[in-house]
């Protein structure tokens, strides 16, 4: 069973008690830790670092684990927590730990260190290792290269099945996955792939080139990591090979890393949808100052955008003064338009993110949205008409009902089109956030409502 | 390389041309299809069914594929499209196709068929197969049981490594994954697990019970499928074993199915965040009527909720009539409160969905939100003060600034608390959608603003 929140908390308290005793019994602790999973130990460590700010205890705990285990645990921690911990380690311990980490996690951590520490570490590494690390650390953040690992199983073209099996066995301890095998030619170019399952049932004397799949799904090293995650999900891959401009194989993106990317992309889009900038960590951990900065930009911008609504109202001041009852329906009308528009925008943004909606679908979707939004507007107009009659008579009810249909229709179409327009101008469609759509519709709603009122009343 | 949107469209046109010729050349077509991936063929088929409503062509195309391939392609199609296609198949062809499908996909499709067809099919199945299908089809939608497959590799406790390897080789053609192996005792209880990698490097004579991992991460068959997806992501699993109430192993949830669940959960939360009900398919495919229904409920409800804002305005009609300039700032103030509140709600909802935020963090987060929202409110008040002075003098500016801080603070705290309150009452926190939060804040904002105005002016 996986650990529940409560039992994790209990385990944490237990461990803290044992660790902060005067002479901690390392054997008992090691025994207890061996029963826990790396992901769970990492969560406990993270809690200790952040809630209790007790770094010495964390170091004692890591010290009790084997190097391999400690490297594993470290890999589950957020980047900044990793840095906090390793800053307290000697170069020797740190180097030993780095060696045990997966090549992708090693490069990520390396990129977070300060210049001096990086130089010092590089000087103490073996040539091959240093070059591999420098190469992996050099890929731009957000690209497939930045999340790939170089620990994959490559088989030279021309090898037999039994030779390949031998190679798989040799590589097994270090490779991120041994279940997908890549065949490369003498130039390092990716020529084919096969699963371990295929290899296991193949005739031992066969040459891999004769049984491999030649048409390999791969991704360029500079392509977006979100694209890598989408390809992994679409074709149900265990790992996706990454190639450079010359078609040479440089790494793989594994299914678990792809899942992490997909999750953080969804979170990012979620936040964008409410006009929140990209947070560097979970909401409970990110610094308060950063949370302020990520939220304030759009809020203040929207304050000024909202002035257009105010200006609209100022323009119709006479109409309002003549019939103050009109103001009664103002929040209702512009709110409804905003809600319908935000719905339409959300459907498009998410559809575009999951690949369900493409620019080619625009025409078809516009027709559908016209029908749906029209029906929605009429339904809402019917709902609001009795109240209009009650509050201000039939004329006012007519104004309100007519405005409702127009505003909902206009809002929905605007909400639907905005993501496509943004995409066209190479802006992330998720920027068409609910607050932006709502504010735009608010201003237009004011004008539509009072224009109709001025015309009819 | 994976296919781009455009090349998929080209391939579709090509295939349609070849298929609708009077005597389609099946050999050439088979050759062409063999170069395509199942996921891509499925997308083309889906397009043909939906855009062109050309079912006969789809059947011809499926007929050219091998049974195994056809079953594979079918598995990538949305449920309703699968049903449309198989309705046109004879029982014999359908049964042969079902046999080739993965057990989880078979059960899903089976559940979508009408009663008569189900009965007819069951009668023609072998006993073992029928029981397996009935069992898998019986799990409630949304549970781990409903997405698990029963095609996994189980090893009897007591077997040696070499016996186990033999078993893996035998099961390889049918199992969903052979890379994770489960050890069960004579009662069918799950006692341990090991990876194929571990098995490959183990001494052939060793007994699996001595090398397996005994503390297996598993999930109950009735637990939510989202929980299964979270466990797979948290522990980077290839597959998660599913057990019944007696700890007997009944299936596995594979990493690719977990990724699909995580994606559709994110989409669902996205839509809920904008008060859209759960769509049964992508936005470009779902029927218009269904799209209307999923959007209208909340919209109409919010119309009535918005009446509270109207009532608030009606209550302060005298204040407004005395100083119409107040209305100028109304959209701005309640809009800003709504935006800040929606931001706070979104951060909480997503944090709770990804497991980053728990109820235990509530106190800490409340303190943080007070600080952040306070700072945001003050910033926005400063931004709006000059406009207040310009429009209506210092007194009005003071009213607006003071209202801004109060409304933003109140809105943010409301937005933050609502998801927790809903969770407490066992309602999905994602129901605390932006429109709901905004509407609640709108009404409160009206009261706050005009109360402050009445007091000061």
Automatic annotation (TrEMBL), chains A, B:
Superkingdom per UniProt: Bacteria
Q: Name one GO molecular function term.
A: metal ion binding
Transmembrane: is it a keyword of this entry? yes
Q: Where in the cell is it found?
A: Cell membrane; Membrane
Record's Gene Ontology CC terms?
plasma membrane
Swiss-Prot/TrEMBL keywords: CBS domain, Cell membrane, Magnesium, Membrane, Metal-binding, Transmembrane, Transmembrane helix, Transport
Where does the chain cross the membrane?
296-316, 322-349, 370-389, 395-422, 434-456
Biological role:
Acts as a magnesium transporter.
* Family to which this protein belongs: Belongs to the SLC41A transporter family.
Name listed for the protein in its UniProt record: Magnesium transporter MgtE
Native source species? Vreelandella rituensis
**Gene that specifies this protein:** mgtE
């Amino acid at each position: 069973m996986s650990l529940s929140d409560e039992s994790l908390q209990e385990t944490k308290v237990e461990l803290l008690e044992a660790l902060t005793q005067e002479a901690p019994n390392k054997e008992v602790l090691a025994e207890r830790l061996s029963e826990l999973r790396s992901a769970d130990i990492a969560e406990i460590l993270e809690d200790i670092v952040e809630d209790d700010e007790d770094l010495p205890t964390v170091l004692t705990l890591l010290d009790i684990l084997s190097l391999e285990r400690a490297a594993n645990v470290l890999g589950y921690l957020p980047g900044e927590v990793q840095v906090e911990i390793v800053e307290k380690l000697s170069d020797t311990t740190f180097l030993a730990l780095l060696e045990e980490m997966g090549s992708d996690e090693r490069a990520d951590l390396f990129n977070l260190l300060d210049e001096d520490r990086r130089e010092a570490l590089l000087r103490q590494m073996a040539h091959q290792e240093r070059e591999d690390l420098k190469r992996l650390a050099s890929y731009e953040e957000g690209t497939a290269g930045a999340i790939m690992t170089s620990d994959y199983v490559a088989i030279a073209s021309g090898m037999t099945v039994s030779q390949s099996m031998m190679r798989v066995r040799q590589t097994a301890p270090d490779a991120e996955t041994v279940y997908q095998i890549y065949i490369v030619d003498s130039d390092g170019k990716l020529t084919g792939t096969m699963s371990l399952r295929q290899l296991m049932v193949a005739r031992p004397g066969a040459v891999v080139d004769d049984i491999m799949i030649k048409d390999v799904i791969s991704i360029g090293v500079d392509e977006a990591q979100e694209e890598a995650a989408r390809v992994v999900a679409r074709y149900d891959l265990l790992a996706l090979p990454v190639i450079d401009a010359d078609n040479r194989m440089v790494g793989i993106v594994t299914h678990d890393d792809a899942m992490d990317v997909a999750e953080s992309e969804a979170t990012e889009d979620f936040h964008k949808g409410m006009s929140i900038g990209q947070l560097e960590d979970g909401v409970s951990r990110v610094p308060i100052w950063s949370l302020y900065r990520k939220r304030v930009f759009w809020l203040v911008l929207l304050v000024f955008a909202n002035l257009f609504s105010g200006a609209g109202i100022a323009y119709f001041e006479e109409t309002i003064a003549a019939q103050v009852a009109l103001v009664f329906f103002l929040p209702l009308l512009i709110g409804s338009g905003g809600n319908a528009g935000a719905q339409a925008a959300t459907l498009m943004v998410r559809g575009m993110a999951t690949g369900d909606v493409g620019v080619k679908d625009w025409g078809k979707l516009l027709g559908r949205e016209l029908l749906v939004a029209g029906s929605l507007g009429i339904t809402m107009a019917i709902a609001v008409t009795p109240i209009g009659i009650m509050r201000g008579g039939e004329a006012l009810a007519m104004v309100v009902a007519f405005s409702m249909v127009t505003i909902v229709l206009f809002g929905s179409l605007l909400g639907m089109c905005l993501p496509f327009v943004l995409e066209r101008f190479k802006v992330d469609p998720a920027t068409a956030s609910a607050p932006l759509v709502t504010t735009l519709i608010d201003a237009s709603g004011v004008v539509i409502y009072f224009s109709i009122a001025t015309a009819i009343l």
